[in-house]
């Protein structure tokens, strides 16, 4: 029959959810510490609990060696002859246990020390049990009850253990009352922790994913798949969904009739805004959807290896695309896992103009590139300090006639040659959009012609270019740019070769 002490240990173990042997070992270790404190010795001490009687006996343990010369420490070792006086059957290498008297001599201080050791061992065992149980459940949604509030942290009761929700894992829209039941995500499990080892969260994206799985049957059965979630708890969540069945609308399934499904999730999140977006494999199309409600003019892939996108929007849509404190574009970047640069039409136009001016300034055209100017004429102009086409075009007829060897007829020849040269450049520039349209056939969303920026504040929309590029590639090369480029205040289309300087 088990003793009263062992029955108490067994009940404590069931309450804490730990192995009874761990508590027994803690009690034995506590007696060893108290005995060592009382005898003030460095002997190797052990204790043993008798389950039937409830008595705890302490022993001094020494290892048996064969000769006195092998004894290095008399407190830890004993010769074979001395050991056989107490136990005739003992052999070399065995252990001789000598009882230590503990009954009636261990006082209040020793009992206090034993109590502290037992509490410490039980707490460590309890933490290990909690860690082993919850370490494999990270990311799981559980129901918890608010137990108490400690400063900014909220302590929850998970049933077998307590959990802690720090301030950064809480939504700013939520407040909790003691006894309230809420759904939380197990964020992480900490082994070395003074407080509860389980950390839970209401700000994790997994919570939104679980709520959609609960409210939307199509997500639960796998017809609609959640591909990405970007969340700023208490502010806004963007979720990208995709349907495996062409007859099922992914966004409509998540919204529900009259918005009933998504409104239920919003109430659970205390009014947090949710944007449901249809997922696309094409990052250009996906970026346009992710930046809603802003209307995107065009999207360009700057570097596919570094996942870098450039988005151009109308001047009136820039603040809407960026969002409050950059929230909209930040969530879109998280959703796509791409870097996104947003620019207005005016900013893009200024950038292109600056690049063009730098290009012109950096690469002057020598006179040798102009057909119609003979070597002798080029030599005369070079003697006068005119070596580039740009410098020659800026000179007046009077300045040219002032150069030695150049008369009125030569001035007319120079003027005709320069005009023909610039006309050929304009014809080449007009052909560039056509070559660009052919080069990116099948990928109209990526193409970003420079010509519209040089003409004015016109838009080239993805939706308008795509059908033409797919149906009539040759026509797209010659007709798309004039149809889509418009100049403010003008009612007629202007070909690129006749645009005003």
Strand fraction equals 15-25%
Number of DSSP helical runs = 19
How does the overall form come out from the CA principal axes?
elongated
Output the structural class: alpha/beta
Task: List the main descriptive attributes of the protein structure presented here.
501 residues; 19 helices; alpha/beta; disordered C terminus; five-stranded mixed beta barrel; 15 strands
Can you put this structure into words, describing what you see?
The chain is of the alpha/beta class and 501 residues long. Helix content is 43%, strand content 20%. The chain is built from 19 helices and 15 strands. The strands form four sheets. It has a five-stranded mixed barrel. A hairpin with a 3-residue loop joins strand 10 (224-232) and strand 11. Helix 5 packs antiparallel against helix 8 and helix 18 runs antiparallel to helix 19. The radius of gyration is 42 Å and the shape is elongated.
Question: What does the secondary structure layout of this molecule look like, with pairings?
Answer:
Blueprint: H1 4-16, H2 20-39, E1 44-49, E2 56-65, E3 77-79, H3 80-86, E4 95-100, H4 108-134, E5 141-150, E6 153-157, E7 162-165, E8 181-189, E9 198-201, H5 205-215, H6 217-220, E10 224-232, E11 236-243, H7 250-255, H8 260-268, E12 273-278, H9 283-290, E13 296-303, E14 308-313, H10 318-322, H11 327-336, E15 339-344, H12 345-362, H13 375-383, H14 389-393, H15 397-401, H16 408-439, H17 451-455, H18 462-471, H19 473-484
Parallel strand pairs: 2-3, 7-9, 11-12, 14-15
Antiparallel strand pairs: 1-2, 2-4, 5-6, 5-8, 6-7, 8-9, 10-11, 13-14
Helix pairs in contact: 1-2, 2-4, 5-8, 9-11, 16-19, 18-19
């Amino acid at each position: 029959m088990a003793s009263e002490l062992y029955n108490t240990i067994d009940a404590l173990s069931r309450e804490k959810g730990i192995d009874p042997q761990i508590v027994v070992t803690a009690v034995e270790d506590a007696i060893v510490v108290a005995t060592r404190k009382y005898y003030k010795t460095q002997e190797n001490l052990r204790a043993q609990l008798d389950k039937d009687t409830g008595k705890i006996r302490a022993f001094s343990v020494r290892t048996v060696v064969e000769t006195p010369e092998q004894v290095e420490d008399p407190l830890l070792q004993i010769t074979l002859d001395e050991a056989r006086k107490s136990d005739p059957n003992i052999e070399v290498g065995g252990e001789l246990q000598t009882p230590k008297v503990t009954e009636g001599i261990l006082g209040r201080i020793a009992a206090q020390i034993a109590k502290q050791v037992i509490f410490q061992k039980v707490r460590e065992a309890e933490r290990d049990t909690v860690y082993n149980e919850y370490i494999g459940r990270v990311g799981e949604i559980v129901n918890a009850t608010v137990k108490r509030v400690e400063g900014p942290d909220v302590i929850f009761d998970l049933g077998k253990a307590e959990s802690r929700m720090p301030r950064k894992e809480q939504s700013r829209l939520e407040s909790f009352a003691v006894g309230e039941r809420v759904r939380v995500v197990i964020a992480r499990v900490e082994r070395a922790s003074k407080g509860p080892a389980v950390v839970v969260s209401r700000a994790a994206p997994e919570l939104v994913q679980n709520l959609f799985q609960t409210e939307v049957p199509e997500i639960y059965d796998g017809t609609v798949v959640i591909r990405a979630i970007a969340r700023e708890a208490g502010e806004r969540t963007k979720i990208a969904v995709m349907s495996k069945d062409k007859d099922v609308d992914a966004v409509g399934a998540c919204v529900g009739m009259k918005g009933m499904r998504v409104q239920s999730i919003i109430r659970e999140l205390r009014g947090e805004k949710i944007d449901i977006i249809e997922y696309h494999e094409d990052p250009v199309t996906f970026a346009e959807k992710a930046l809603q409600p802003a209307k995107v003019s065009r999207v360009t892939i700057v570097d596919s290896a570094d996942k870098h996108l450039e988005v151009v929007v109308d001047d009136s849509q820039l603040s809407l695309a960026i969002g409050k404190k950059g929230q909209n574009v930040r969530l879109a970047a998280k959703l796509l896992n791409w870097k996104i640069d947003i620019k207005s039409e005016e900013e893009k136009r200024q950038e292109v103009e600056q690049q063009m001016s730098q290009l012109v300034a950096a690469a002057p055209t020598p006179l040798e590139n102009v057909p119609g100017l003979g070597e002798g004429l080029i030599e005369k102009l070079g003697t006068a300090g005119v070596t580039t086409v740009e410098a020659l075009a800026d000179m007046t007829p009077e300045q040219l006639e002032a150069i030695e060897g150049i008369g009125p007829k030569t001035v007319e020849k120079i003027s005709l040659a320069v005009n023909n040269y610039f006309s050929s450049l304009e014809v080449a520039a007009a052909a560039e959009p056509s070559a660009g349209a052919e080069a990116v056939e099948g990928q109209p969303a990526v193409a970003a012609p420079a010509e519209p920026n040089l003409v004015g504040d016109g838009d080239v929309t993805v939706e308008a270019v795509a059908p033409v590029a797919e149906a009539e590639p040759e026509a797209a090369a010659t007709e798309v740019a004039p149809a889509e480029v418009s100049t403010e205040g003008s009612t007629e289309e202007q070909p690129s070769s006749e645009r005003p300087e």
